[in-house]
Specification:
By secondary structure, the chain is mainly alpha-helical. The chain is about 35% helix and about 5% strand. The chain has four helices and two strands, in the order H-E-H-H-E-H. It has helices at about 5-15, 25-30, 35-45, 75-80, and strands at about 25, 55-60. A two-stranded parallel sheet has the order 1-2. Helix 2 packs across helix 3. The model has no long low-confidence stretch (mean pLDDT about 95). The structure holds a DNA duplex (13 and 13 nucleotides).
DNA sequence: CCGTTGACCAGGC
DNA sequence: GGCCTGGCCAACG
């Protein structure tokens, strides 16, 4: 494993989120000592569709991404529901799905 | 070198 | 829960 820039650190952490659970940008940011915005940016430009489960990251309120990079929030919702994540409404997961990792 | 943008957050009300 | 504010910071033009 060579040098990891900040984005790769984010991706390797996201890969550890178990199926059926989600975590927050802030939790990842805190663990990597970076700003939550930077985590959001890294996922926005994530080049590893299918390799990094970026659909398992939500904001502090449990809200999914309004402009999820791979097909919009509807796709993110589908991916999560397929894994058993329950939703409170169209844009929010039930908070008991959120883990801190 | 700015000014702006954005998959954010903490805290207050 | 919602709405604001101030803070945050990489990237882009």
């Amino acid at each position: 494993m060579g040098m990891m820039d900040y984005k790769e650190k984010v991706y390797s952490l996201v890969k550890q989120i178990p199926k059926g659970k989600v975590t927050t940008y802030g939790a990842i940011a805190k663990k990597l000592s970076m700003s939550p915005r930077t985590v959001g940016y890294a996922l926005h430009v994530n080049p590893y569709e299918g390799k990094v489960p970026c659909h398992r990251v939500v904001n502090r309120d449990g809200r999914i991404a309004p402009s999820f990079a791979f097909g919009g929030s509807e796709i993110q919702k589908e991916l999560l529901e397929k894994e058993g994540v329950k939703f409170r409404d169209e844009m929010h997961v039930e908070k008991d799905n959120i883990i801190t990792i």
